[in-house]
Amino acid sequence: MKIPKRLQPLVDDGLVDEVLYQLMSGKEATVFVVKSQGRICCAKVYKESMKRSFKKAAQYNEGRKVRSTRRARAMEKGSKFGRKQQEDQWQNAEVDALFKLSKAGVRVPQPYGCYDGVLLMELIADEQGEVAPRLNDVSMSAEQAIEDHEQVMLYVQLMLCAGIVHGDLSEFNVLVDDYGPVIIDLPQAVDAAANNNAYSMLLRDVHNMTEYYGEFAPELLQTHYGEEMWALFEAGDLSPEVILTGQFEFDESAADVNTVMEEIKAAFDEEQERIERIRSANEPD
User: Contact, 169 vs 203, CB < 8 A?
Assistant: First the structure.
């Protein structure tokens, strides 16, 4: 195929041998299958902020550390240099998260490097070399759903132990190969300790995954892994060795009406975003 403009510098530098085909185009990036130094891998080309449709980016950027005070000031002012730094921060967040989570035992694509807004990483494929499907395209038995849900909850637990919340986890951001689920798409990953939205994002991540697997195994819908994990995390008792139960004892004291209304509104907004994700996923590239 014709070499995309953003990939041409990597071809010129010998980082990419050949561009084979476009795999998908999403809200924050377009992914190509390429040959790099003799191996087949993915090239994730991040879209510029003006073309990116990812909502509420400020919530995800909260708590991300900027080492240079000059860069921090520029980002606050929104200067051209500052916008460039924000783009670099957004892209590097995924690279950093992939390296960190791979080391923590979470199944994620192996990153090979990020070059001027293009992330080269492992292509998740089956034994026949076919690209692994997204979870939303996979049907399964109740037994398989329970097994895979348990595995994904373990990955979420390991992520939280590493100080990371995915922030946009759903059946559209999980691939399934011959060995099980693989977590993808992490540019919006947040610092669990530094981001005030981390708890609500964790609950949403767990809810999304439980809802999907619950279509095949309804008993999963009665579990509360998100609340259980966060309570242990806040108490300093969460570790990779902790065996979760999915059970959680809620406070039965009288509810604050305003808080309840806010939670209802948040749930509505999340459902609208979920519908939008489904619509975007079904749109042709």
Answer: no
164 pLDDT higher than 70: yes
> Exposure string (b/e) for 224-262, b if CB count within 10 Å is 16 or more?
bbbbbbbebbeeeebeeeeebebeeeeeeeeeeeeeeee
**pTM higher than 0.85 for the full model?**
no
Spatial distance between the Cα atoms of 211 and 69, rounded to a whole number of angstroms = 43
List, in order, residues 6 or more apart from 8 with CB less than 8 Å away: none
> Residue 33 to residues 19, 30, 75, 112, 136: CA-CA distances in angstroms?
6, 10, 33, 14, 21
Tokens read off for 103: 């080391």
Q: How many residues does the chain have?
A: 285
Confidence of residue 92 (pLDDT cuts 50, 70, 90): confident
Q: How far is CA 63 from CA 133, 171, 185, 278, in A?
A: 33, 26, 19, 29
Residues near 202 by beta carbon (within 8 Å), at least 6 away in sequence: 156, 160, 165, 192, 226, 229, 230
What is the reported pLDDT for 162? 97
- CB distance 207 to 230 below 8 Å: no
CA 102/CA 95 separation, integer angstroms: 11
pLDDT digits over 101-117, tens only?
Answer: 999 999 999 999 999 88
Give the whole-angstrom CA distance, residue 162 versus residue 137: 29
Q: What is the arrangement of strands in the sheet containing 39-46, beginning at the earlier edge strand?
A: 18-25, 29-36, 39-46, 118-122, 111-114
Structure-token pair, residue 196: 């005030």
